[in-house]
Amino acid sequence: MTYKPFLKWAGGKAKLVPFIMGNLPVGRSKRLVEPFAGSAALSLAVDFDAYLLNDTNADLIGLFQMLQSEKQAFIDYVRSFFIADNNQEARFYELREQFNAADDSAERAALFVYLNRHAFNGLCRYNSKGAFNVPFGRYSAPYFPEAEMQGFIAKSNRIELMCGDFQAALARVGHDDVVYCDPPYVPLSETASFTAYAKGGFDLNEQIRLAQAAQEAAEPSKGVLISNHDTAFTREIYKEARLETVSVQRNIAAKSSSRQKVGELLAIYGE
Length: 271
Ligand SMILES: C[S@@+](CC[C@H](N)C(=O)[O-])C[C@H]1O[C@@H](n2cnc3c(N)ncnc32)[C@H](O)[C@@H]1O
What we know:
Layout (H helix, E strand, L loop, with lengths): L16 H5 L9 E4 L6 H5 L4 E6 L2 H13 L1 H8 L9 H13 L3 H14 L27 H10 L3 E5 L2 H5 L6 E5 L22 H15 L5 E6 L2 H6 L4 E9 L9 E10 L2
Helix pairs in contact: 3-6, 4-6, 5-6
The structure holds S-adenosylmethionine.
């Protein structure tokens, strides 16, 4: 079965799934490893015997763990936050405060889903102290992604979760694995730089570190794929890989006037 992600996620790859799938050695590999899981669009869409999902964002992995262990009971708890009274500006800021102060892991995970659907553009951004700081989104009727969360649960007994740097996930790669790396995008230009992910940005040195680690991890595996913008920089750092390209419509900026078609590059190591 294939499912859609239940989270809105910057750089989410739901639209690119057919392109990525077309380049995955599906029949020859048993496990899909995603060191930069985000909303896990690819893992939810393709069928493997097992999945290893890693991300540095502890709230994201905490939420996945909660769905995995508490299942429908957790979905029912999340639903209690999706009421009309909570879709008001003052209430949003109270709940954002409650999220930032929450000690209880179920409460924090449920509020993370609430924030994902009620905050501006579905962004996930933290200040230097680690507090979630995205403003109110002003949606008329925020969607409650019940069916999509149930999709995640349906796969969850085949999913192993890790929270840390991508290198730790790549160190676990073995013979039966294929790896899909979806790092934060390189900027298209200096002014378009968009790094609204978990604390601690992903600069160009990190992109180079990933390209090197991917090439090494390709050796014991069935292949390592990396997606990124198609730029002179990415073509240079992935020059040892086979490259495939596709052009997609992307809403990188908040203003629709800034929507543009950009090239996506898929670097494939190990074939
Ligand atoms: C482009 S998003 C992945 C989107 C995902 N493929 C999807 O479909 O939603 C990049 C992800 O990398 C994570 N990340 C940033 N730095 C990382 C690092 N050093 N190691 C692992 N994950 C990292 C971010 O938290 C973010 O979720």
